[in-house]
Amino acid sequence: MSQSSIGVAVIGAGMAGKAHAAAYRNAPSLYESILPEVRLVSIADAYAPAGEAAAARFGYTRSDTSWQAIAAADDIDVVSVVVANHLHREIVEGLLDAGKHVLCEKPLSDTLEDARAMAAAAERASTIARIGLTFRRAPGIAYIRELVDSGRLGKVLHVSIRYWTDYAADPGTAISWRFKGASGSGALADVGSHASYLAEFLAGDAVEVGGGRFSTAISQRPKPLGAVSGHGHSAVSDEYDTVENDDYAAFSLRFAGGAAGTIEVSRVAAGHPNDLQIEVFGELGGAKFDQSRPSEIELYLAEDSAAERGYRRVLLGSPHPYIAGGMPIDVSGVGFGQNEGFLFQARAFLEEVAGLDESVSLPRNADFGEGVHNMELLAAVAESERLSGATVRLDK
């Protein structure tokens, strides 16, 4: 990396790729202006029109059609990899070999073998490799974590997480890479990866999972007539292909501290486009987060008088994580959403690449070892499902 600037590229111009692209564009304006110049260099996508459109929209100098072009470019230092999971290993290892700093979308890969190989490559690399566990940076979820760590909620007794989406609820949705792969690589890997790392973020290390149940609700989907981007719909043919993985998944967890947990995820929950709900119950109170109202949490503290005891709405503002000095208007009630998680994530990554002290504004992003652990947990869920819901221990 040059001392005076950081050149940025994004591989993948789909839904999440656009979120990364926008985040790098806006990261220098978050908090103090302490970053070197951030140069928005390229957005790469195998489907050239998508890359060209995203580059023009977000102010990147050019677009490319291969990851190899990004790896070979001398003016690029930092790369986000936001493509199909089965492509991650080749691209990430190639970028690290080329001396790039890499931020990879979750899950780390589509197989544990590849994820572990990527983590080993990151250990060998002279550059930085991180995985984006974006929801850890949602201010409401981070604040609930603070309530747990401070003891305000007391010992955590159990956690309940539901992540319902409906991007695949329409049987006419075109087949794509999201519907291919082994059991557990569908809804569980897509949105269950978020739910599982959040469960551990709030309740500590999981030591076993059980009750694994998967369902493929829509077994055949039409083939697309053109490119399929993100969760969007596209024109389809009269020819159908088989869905290989799960539309729905549910499982339970036990944590090292004695707490229990349940997780339920779906990509066919009609009417729930992005419905992440979290409840944490402790000996001294409870807290709720609802992604449809991301600028607030609900909080119950047993220390309140009997006449006032119950859940109350807490609007998030400058006293809460990530907001003070970051949001242009950082007072309670103004609001923010999931897009800001990508912004906080990009800022933290750029600060680390620039060599700034971790105490400047943000904690670091998760490393590839944490990405491997998340996949090991999901693999244990798939094993539980294969064993008709049997309990599966997690090796630490």
Describe this structure in words.
Helix 5 (112-124) runs antiparallel to helix 9. The strands form three sheets. This protein has a nine-stranded mixed sheet with strand order 16-15-14-13-7-12-11-8-18. The longest helix is centred in the last third of the chain and has 19 residues, at 368-386. The protein is built from nine helices and 18 strands. Helix 1 (15-26) links the parallel strand 1 and strand 2. The protein is of the alpha/beta class and 396 residues long.
Write the topology of this structure.
Elements: E1 5-11, H1 15-26, E2 37-44, H2 48-58, E3 62-64, H3 67-72, E4 78-81, H4 88-97, E5 101-105, H5 112-124, E6 129-132, H6 139-150, E7 156-164, H7 187-203, E8 206-215, E9 220-224, E10 236-242, E11 248-255, E12 260-266, E13 275-282, E14 285-290, E15 296-301, E16 312-315, H8 339-353, E17 366-367, H9 368-386, E18 392-393
Helix pairs in contact: 1-8, 4-5, 5-9, 6-7, 7-9
Helix content class? 25-40%
How confident overall, as mean pLDDT?
Answer: 94
Could you give the count of β-strands? 18
> How much of the sequence is in beta strands?
25-35%
Q: Characterize the biggest β-sheet.
A: 9 strands, mixed
Shape: globular
Low-pLDDT sequence parts: none
Structural class: alpha/beta
- Element-by-element helix/strand order: EHEHEHEHEHEHEHEEEEEEEEEHEHE
Rg over alpha carbons: 21 Å
Spatial sequence of strands, sheet with the most strands = 16-15-14-13-7-12-11-8-18
Distance between the termini: 35 Å
| Total helical segments | 9
